[in-house]
Each structure stands twice: as C-alpha cells, then as structure tokens.
Design goal:
Organism: Brassica carinata (Ethiopian mustard)
EC number: 2.7.1.11
Pathway: Carbohydrate degradation; glycolysis; D-glyceraldehyde 3-phosphate and glycerone phosphate from D-glucose: step 3/4
Low-confidence stretches: 1-6, 459-463
Shape: elongated
Number of helices: 12
Subunit structure: Homotetramer.
Bound molecules: adenosine-5'-triphosphate, 6-O-phosphono-beta-D-fructofuranose, magnesium ion
Mean pLDDT: 93
Helix content: 25-40%
Number of strands: 17
Strand content: 15-25%
Cofactor: Mg(2+)
Order of helices and strands: EEEHEEEEHEHEHEHEHEHEHEHEHEEHH
Distance between the termini: 32 Å
Largest sheet: 11 strands, mixed
Length: 463
C-alpha cells in the first residue's frame, strides 16, 4: 500500500513528457517470469491479414481528456485495445470461462456470443465454459460448454443465457474453482459491484501466481461506470423508454389537465431519465437523483405543474427511480444481496402526493396516469448500435486476454477501444453533473424550475 492506502499492485503508471501519464493495466509477465510467447494466429487469418497495420502498436495509447489547452499537461492515457503481434497463450491450451453478474442489460447475450465466437474464430480456442447464475455459480453450479453454435442467435434475445445474480461473491471459493477447473482466461461481465468482485479475483489469482487472465466487460444500463464513454445497452434502454414517454404523452393529451408520470431506472445516476427526456421533447419535467427537488411553495413542483397545466392543458414528468428518496418517508432502509440500497418507489409516492395536493386545493381537476416501465427497458435485446458496440467490447477483451493483459476492463474512451485498470472504474460512480452543459441542455428543453431555492422549512430531496 502507498501512503494514500492505494494498492500498488493496481497502479502501473508510466510518465512521459509534457505531463503524459499512462495508467497501464497489469500483464501476466509482471508476476510470472519467462512466459513463452507465440505468433498471433490472426496473422494467417484471411479476414484480418489483408488489413494494413491490423496489430496495435505497443506504444499506442488513448487520452482520457481530449479537450486541451496550448500549455495544459497531456494527462491520463489508457492502453489502446486490440490484437498484438504476439500472444501469451497457445490457443489449444486456453480454457476460458464467462460469467454475468448484477442486473440485466440489453447486449449481455451479444457480449457472451462475441467472446465465444471471437475466441473460436479469431484465435482457434475451442474450450469456453459458461458459469451459470453469477459469481456464486463458480462454486454452486455446473458449468456449461459454449460453442459458436450454442450462441449463434442469442444476441436476438434479451437477458443473459447464463443467468445472473447479486451477492454470493466469495473470492477464495471462486479462485479455488478456477484453479480446479484449470481455467486460464476469465471474462466477467457486470456493473461496478461486479468489477469490484473481478478485481478481488484478479488480486487473489496474482497472489497465488497463477497464469490466469482476468478481463472485465463493464455493464450497466444506468451508465454509472466512470471513465468510459457510455455503457453498452444504454442507448437501447433510452430508446425503449421513449415508448413509455409516448404513452404518457398520449394519455396526458387526451384528457383535460392530464399528467403522465413515468418512472425510469437510475439508482444513483439519472442518465437514462436525462437522455430519454432530451430525446423525447414531450417531457415537461425531469427529476434525477443528482438534482434535489421539492414539492411545496414557490419554485416547487406543485407550482410548476399548475403553471404547465394552465399553459398547455397537459404535462409529462419523468422521474429516475433514485430521485427524491429523502422525501419518501419510510423508516427502514433495506439492502439487496449485494449490499445495494433498496429504493422506495418514488413514482408511486409522487403520483399519490400530486393527486392528493390537487384534490385538496380544489382549484384544478387533474387526471394522472403513472407508468412504470422499469424492467421493460432493460429486459430487451440490444438495438443495432448496441450490438455493434457490445461486439467490439467483447473482441477487445479477447485480444487483451490473449495478449497476456489481466486485471483490466475493456472500455470505450473518446470513441477508441481501450484497456482500463479495474481501480479506475471502481473508485467512484459516474453521475450527471448538474453544472455541465448536458444538464443545461435538458433544462432548456423542459424549461422546468431549477429547484435551487427551497423555501424555509421545505423538505428538499438530496441523494
Ligand atoms: N465490493 C465488492 N467486492 C466483491 N464483490 C462485490 C463487491 N460489490 C459487489 N460484488 C459482487 O458483484 C456482483 C454484482 O454486484 P451488484 O449486484 O452490485 O451489481 P453490479 O455489478 O453493480 O450491476 P448493476 O449495475 O446491475 O447494479 C455480486 O455477486 C456481488 O456479490
Ligand atoms: O435487478 P434488481 O435487483 O431489481 O435491481 C434493479 C437495479 O438494477 C439497475 O437496473 C442497474 O443497476 C438499476 O437501475 C436498478 O435500480
Ligand atoms: Mg451497481
């Protein structure tokens, strides 16, 4: 550990001129000496051998910050993903496994498919195992064999063909199992919690000195993983959310003083709500965990609803599930199996409060329809662009593991495929920054109140 309590094993920094820093990912050769290398089989693959400069140069890196000033330091860079001239595994010796953990997300099956097909068709690897039902499946379930034929059309289905779970991460039992099954490449698909688990597995594997590459593929429809441009499945979820918003709009416009209220996923981050609102243009108010709001008094939600209804005769409100949690009165805080806070139903609560408020006021008769498409936006197959994105992430992970990298996730940074060390994506969550331009664009599209000045005594929701 260094003086900041950061595990040095996780920090592989390379400094260069003009403030250049490479936050590199670990490599099997960092802790196993004299590993043999082999020519990359892609050299003789007809599909790839025609591509000029198909192999990624060892020195290629991708900057995290692309907007720079004349004299500003070049800053953090990540290793560029892609196939290397040399690989650290003989294809016939590879025994890979894939596991999916956490909540569902469009594209999970595509990632599974493309890891299997990438290993098989690009590298000639034939032994790929599927671990059923998340981390606990390593020690409590039998594995399944995955061939290109088994996965050929799974990308057309939502969910994960392997099953998933929360909780049940037991590092030693998992690594014992990896050792017992002679697995030497582990592909772990999941969100922030999963990648913390993946990092623990990598560290234990390294402690035991095993030649096992651990690669993470970040997944979460909430888009709450930092550093990467966005997570796969996010676009599909935003697109599906449009259907709920459209329905809310149709319901609201078909009656006098109609209100359509839609609750969307987003536990700590309101990206889905914000992008769905921006895409739709039918939304009058978007509430997210990062932006506190209040109901009563001047500048509050009730006042705004009354104003919009007087102006337009209808309105649509989108609320992210993690918004306003402090307002929803309930004393017992509960957690799921992974230790994530279980949220109170802010949508249901808001619909009751709004109805109650206008009934009490007796100035305006409203009709409110509450639509909760929560699971519908994540239990669907990926759209075309998420399918392509998931494919590239999976292929990059395969190239990285074959090249001997380990303890990394494959992620898109400024439009380029990269390898990012686990600690960079698990140390904090990505959130909507309400002082950034995107939130300002959203506010200017809805013209909603900023909720910046709650009257004294008003409860403000903070998250
Ligand atoms: N700090 C941690 N250390 C080790 N394992 C963890 C940690 N946090 C979570 N996990 C494990 O990771 C798995 C998934 O975690 P979690 O349920 O939080 O979902 P997630 O990966 O964050 O995905 P989602 O975006 O759906 O929340 C669980 O099996 C859990 O036990
Ligand atoms: O799958 P569960 O346990 O119902 O959890 C739902 C949570 O998972 C997510 O879909 C992803 O983290 C959140 O948006 C949501 O709060
Ligand atoms: Mg999570």
């Amino acid at each position: 550990m260094d003086s900041n309590g950061v595990d040095e094993q996780e920090m592989k920094l390379v400094q260069g001129a003009a403030g250049y820093v490479l936050e590199d990912v670990p490599h099997l050769s960092d802790y196993i000496l004299d590993l043999p290398t082999y020519p990359n089989p892609l050299q003789s693959n007809p599909a790839y051998s025609v591509v000029r400069q198909y192999f990624v140069d060892e020195d290629d890196t991708v900057p995290q910050k692309i907007v720079v000033h004349k004299d500003s330091p070049r800053g953090t860079h990540f290793r560029r993903a892609g196939p290397r001239q040399k690989v650290y595994f003989k294809p016939a010796d590879v025994r890979a496994c894939i596991v999916t953990c956490g909540g569902l997300c469009p594209g999970l099956n595509t990632v599974i498919r493309e890891i299997v097909c990438g290993l098989h068709y690009m590298y000639g690897v034939t032994e790929v195992l599927g671990v059923n039902c998340g981390f606990s499946g390593f020690y409590s379930k039998n594995t399944v064999t995955l061939t290109p034929k088994d996965v050929s059309d799974i990308h057309k289905r939502g969910g994960t063909m392997l099953g998933t779970s929360r909780g049940g991460h037991d590092t030693s039992k998992i690594v014992d199992n990896i050792q017992d099954r002679e697995i030497n490449q582990v592909y772990i698909i999941g969100g922030d919690g999963t990648q913390k688990g993946a990092s623990a597995i990598y560290k234990e594997i390294r402690r035991r000195g095993l030649k096992v590459a651990v690669a993470g593929i970040p997944k979460t429809i909430d888009n709450d993983i930092p550093v990467i441009d966005k997570s796969f499945g996010f676009d599909t979820a935003v697109e599906e959310a449009q259907r709920a918003i459209n329905a809310a709009h149709v319901e609201a416009t078909s009656v006098e003083n109609g209100i359509g209220l839609v609750k969307l996923m987003g536990r700590y981050s309101g990206f889905i709500a914000m992008y769905a609102t921006l895409a739709s243009r039918d939304v009058d108010c978007c509430l997210i965990p990062e932006s506190p709001f209040y109901l009563e008094g001047k500048g509050g939600l009730y006042e705004f609803i009354a104003k919009r209804l007087r102006e337009n005769g209808h309105m649509v409100i989108v609320v992210a599930e993690g918004a306003g949690q402090d307002l929803v009165a309930e004393s017992i805080e509960q957690q799921d199996a992974s230790g994530n806070k279980l949220l109170k139903d802010v949508g249901l609560w808001m619909s009751l409060k709004i109805k109650e408020h206008f009934a009490k006021q007796r100035k305006m008769d409203i009709t409110l329809k509450y639509i909760d498409p929560t699971y519908m936006i994540r239990a669907i197959p990926a759209n075309a662009s998420d399918n392509v994105y998931s494919t590239l992430l999976a292929q990059s992970a395969v190239h990285g593991a074959m090249a001997g990298y380990t303890g990394f996730i494959s992620g898109l940074v400024n439009g380029r495929q990269t390898y990012i060390p686990f600690n960079r994506i698990t140390e904090k969550q990505n959130k909507v920054v309400i002082t950034d331009r995107m939130w300002a664009r959203m506010l200017s599209s809805t013209n909603q109140p900023s909720f910046m000045n709650p009257p004294n005594g008003t409860t403000e929701a903070t998250c």
